[in-house]
C-alpha cells in the first residue's frame, strides 16, 4: 500500500514509480520507460472509436493498449464490476463499484499498467488473458454479407438472392434493416416521438406484414438458399404499446397492459433483459432469425454508474446466444455472433463491430483501412464496414464503389 502524508494514502508521483525495460528509447521522448502517477503518455498507437457515423475522412480514435512510450495505463476505477451467477442463475451480471475510503465517489482504485516496452504482441496477449479471449465467429460470418436500408418486399429480396446465384456471386448473410418491423417515417421526419421521447417507431419488435406476409416461410426460404439472416434493432425506446407482444411484456414486468404505458428500456435490469429476449425476441428467433444487429443506441448512460448501454447490450445479446438460447434439435450450441457498435474496452469479447453510416468518399475509404488496423490495439479484430459507403452528395464513381 502507498505511504502518504497523514491520512492521505493515495498513490502519487512520490510513492510510486514503474520502470519499464525497453530495447530502444527515443532521445526526443526523454525517458518514456519510467512512469509515475500523473504522467501522460505521448505516443499511444491508437485504438478504435464507438462509431464512424457521418464521418467523412479521419477522426481521432480512443487510446489503445500499446504505445511507443513503452507503457499504457488503463484506469477502470470509474467502471462497474461483474457479479458471478449462481446455481439458479448462471448469467454473469453487472453491479456498481462499491464506495470506500479511497474514493467515496467511484469506489476502488482499479489501475492496469501495461509495461511491455515494444513487445506489443505480449501486451495484447496478456490483455485477452485478463479481459477475456477473442471469440471465433461462426464460419459463415467470414463470407459475403448484403445490406441496404430500403423498404424491400420479401419478393424483392428473394429476387436479389436468386440474381446473386444466377451470376455465381457468393452470398452468405442477408442483413435486413429496420423495415422488417413497423415504421412511421412520415411522422418521425416531422418530429414525432414515442413515450420514451425517441423517434416514433425507430425501435420495433413487430413484423411489417405488408413487406413480409409470412416471416417464417421467408426465413425458411433463406436458409434453403444457404443464407443466414440478421435483423436490425434500435432498442432505446423500450417496448411501446403498439407492439404485438406488448401485453405479455407488460405483464412480465409487473405492469398493467390496460394502462398502455410503455415498458422503459433498462438493459441493466436482469428482469427486463431476460423478458426482452424471451418474450419479445425469442419468438422471432424461432421463426428463423440467426443473430441480431444492435444498431445505434441514443444515450450513453444507464442506471449503473460508469456503464454505457452499448457494451452491456453487446454482453447481454452475445452471452444469450451462447449460453441461454436453446439450439435446435440435433444441432450444436451456437457460436456467439452479433453485429454491433464498439462499446469500449472489453468489446473484443462480442464480435463483430459495425462502424456505422459513413460517407462514400476516397477519404473515408482511406481512413477505414487505418481504422481497422488500429482496432487490433484493443483486441478488436473483426469489423464490418459499409462497402460502397452510406451517405453521398453525388453518384458514387464506379472505381470508388469497386474498391
Summarize the structure.
With 403 residues, the protein is an alpha/beta fold. It is built from nine helices and 13 strands.
Descriptive tags:
25% helix; globular; five-stranded parallel beta sheet; alpha/beta; two-stranded antiparallel sheet; 13 strands; single chain; 403 residues
Tell me the Rg in angstroms: 24 Å
> What percent strand?
5-15%
Please provide the ordered H/E string of secondary-structure elements.
Answer: EEEEEEHEHEHHEHHEHEEHEH
Count, helices = 9
Segments where pLDDT lies below 50 for 5+ residues? 1-6, 25-30
Largest sheet: 5 strands, parallel
Helix and strand composition category: alpha/beta
C-alpha geometry: globular
Query: What is the total tally of β strands?
Result: 13
Strands of the largest sheet, in order across it?
7-8-9-10-11
> Please, what is the average pLDDT?
89
**Amino-to-carboxy terminus distance:** 56 Å
| Percent helix range | 10-25%
Structural notes for this entry:
This protein is of the alpha/beta class and 403 residues long. It has 9 helices and 13 strands. It has helices at 120-131, 154-166, 185-189, 215-224, 246-252, 270-287, 309-324, 362-375, 398-402, and strands spanning 18-19, 34-35, 72-75, 81-83, 93-95, 111-114, 145-147, 173-176, 228-233, 291-294, 338-340, 353-354, 383-384. The strands form 5 sheets. The protein has a 5-stranded parallel beta sheet with strand order 7-8-9-10-11, covered by helices on one side. Strand 12, helix 8 and strand 13 form a beta-alpha-beta unit. Helix 5 (246-252) packs antiparallel against helix 6 (270-287). The longest helix has 18 residues, at 270-287. The N and C termini lie far apart (56 Å). Residues 1-6 and 25-30 have low confidence and may be disordered.
Amino acid at each position: 500500500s502507498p505511504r502518504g502524508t497523514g491520512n492521505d494514502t493515495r498513490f502519487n508521483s512520490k510513492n510510486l514509480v514503474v520502470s519499464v525495460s525497453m530495447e530502444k528509447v527515443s532521445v526526443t521522448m526523454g525517458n518514456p520507460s519510467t512512469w509515475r502517477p500523473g504522467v501522460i503518455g505521448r505516443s499511444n498507437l491508437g485504438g478504435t472509436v464507438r462509431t464512424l457515423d457521418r464521418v467523412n475522412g479521419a477522426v481521432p480514435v480512443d487510446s489503445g493498449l500499446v504505445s511507443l512510450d513503452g507503457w499504457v495505463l488503463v484506469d477502470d476505477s470509474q467502471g462497474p464490476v461483474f457479479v458471478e451467477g449462481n446455481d439458479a442463475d448462471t448469467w454473469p451480471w453487472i453491479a456498481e463499484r462499491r464506495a470506500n475510503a479511497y474514493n467515496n465517489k467511484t469506489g476502488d482504485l482499479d489501475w492496469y499498467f501495461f509495461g511491455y516496452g515494444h513487445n506489443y504482441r505480449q501486451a495484447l496477449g496478456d490483455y485477452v488473458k485478463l479481459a477475456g479471449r477473442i471469440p471465433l465467429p461462426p464460419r459463415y460470418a467470414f463470407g459475403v454479407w448484403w445490406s441496404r436500408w430500403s423498404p424491400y418486399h420479401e419478393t424483392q429480396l428473394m429476387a436479389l438472392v436468386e440474381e446473386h446465384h444466377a451470376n455465381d456471386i457468393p452470398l452468405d448473410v442477408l442483413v435486413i434493416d429496420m423495415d422488417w418491423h413497423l415504421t412511421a417515417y412520415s411522422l418521425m421526419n416531422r418530429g414525432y416521438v414515442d413515450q420514451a421521447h425517441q423517434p416514433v417507431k425507430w425501435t420495433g419488435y413487430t413484423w411489417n406484414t405488408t413487406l413480409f406476409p409470412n416471416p417464417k416461410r421467408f426465413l425458411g426460404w433463406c436458409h434453403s438458399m444457404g443464407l443466414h439472416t440478421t435483423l436490425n434493432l434500435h432498442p432505446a425506446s423500450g417496448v411501446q404499446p403498439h407492439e404485438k407482444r406488448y401485453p405479455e411484456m407488460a405483464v412480465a414486468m409487473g405492469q398493467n397492459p390496460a394502462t398502455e404505458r410503455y415498458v422503459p428500456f433498462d438493459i441493466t435490469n436482469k428482469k427486463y433483459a431476460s423478458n426482452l429476449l424471451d418474450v419479445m425476441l425469442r419468438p422471432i428467433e424461432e421463426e428463423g432469425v440467426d443473430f441480431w444487429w444492435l444498431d445505434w443506441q441514443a444515450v450513453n448512460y444507464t442506471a449503473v454508474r460508469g456503464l454505457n448501454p452499448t457494451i452491456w447490450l453487446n454482453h447481454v445479446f452475445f452471452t444469450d446466444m451462447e449460453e441461454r438460447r436453446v439450439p435446435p434439435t440435433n444441432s450444436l450450441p451456437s457460436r456467439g455472433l452479433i453485429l454491433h457498435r464498439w462499446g469500449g474496452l472489453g468489446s473484443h469479447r462480442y464480435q463483430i463491430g459495425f462502424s456505422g453510416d459513413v460517407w462514400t468518399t476516397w477519404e473515408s475509404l482511406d481512413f477505414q483501412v487505418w481504422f481497422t488496423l488500429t482496432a487490433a490495439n484493443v483486441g478488436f479484430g473483426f469489423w464490418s464496414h459499409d462497402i460502397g459507403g452510406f451517405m453521398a452528395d453525388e453518384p458514387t464513381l464506379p472505381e470508388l464503389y469497386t474498391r
